[in-house]
Amino acid sequence: MSTDSLNRFAPENGEPFNGRVQVYTGTGKGKTTAAIGLAVRAAGHGYRSFIGQFMKGIPYGEHTALKAIPEITIEQFGDEACLRKEEITELHRQQARSGLARCREIMHNNTYDLIVLDEINVTIWFGLVSEQDVLAFVEEKPKNVELILTGRHAPQTIVSRADLVTEMKSVKHYFDGDLLARDGIER
Q1: Domains of the chain
Q2: Which of 31, 108, 164, 186 has CB atoms 3.0–4.6 Å from 181's, for a disulfide?
């Protein structure tokens, strides 16, 4: 991809594009799904998206489906096991720090128009990366990049810095009963 194709999100009126920072947070379902939907929409216009998934290390349905969309790249920076705060190890912290460094490298290589840091807010909440490191990442965002941060527990500093914040609110969830995650719906 040539650098001429960057900044394609510019409106038709010729104004220069200024990428925004979006946050999808809250207790409700759909934060990752919304970010992936935005990447699919962008791909429909020929834009390239990079999705860095934190705290995830197993294949999800989106990995298989998105292989058919060459404009979207996904990398994972997490363990195969579902983590609990009290089970965090130095390996988990290293995975998250390496993931953030990789996303920073990707953000600055002028290849992607949209960058998603999936579950980064939970990553902060678990203490795997610092809030300050993620804020520094946000501040380094080039003007022509749209940046999406997902996950529960978005820190107020991230919310305040964002241009758009959507809070998914759980009103009722079948996980409150005995239903486990289902292929094709939750994973």
Answers
A1: 18-168 (3.40.50.300)
A2: 186
How far is residue 164's CA from residue 148's CA, in Å, rounded to a whole number? 9
Q: Which residue from 156, 151, 104, 159 is spatially nearest to 126, judged by alpha carbons?
A: 151
Closest CA to 39 of 140, 112, 138: 112
Structure tokens at 32: 């990752």
Cβ contact 61:184 at 8 Å: yes
The DSSP symbol for 162 reads: -
Please give the DSSP secondary-structure letter assigned to residue 109: T
**182 touches 174 (CB < 8 A):** no
Mean pLDDT in order along the chain per 10 residues (187 residues):
48 68 96 97 95 92 93 94 89 96 97 97 97 98 96 98 96 71 69
Q: Which of 50, 183, 174 is nearest to 117 (CA)?
A: 50
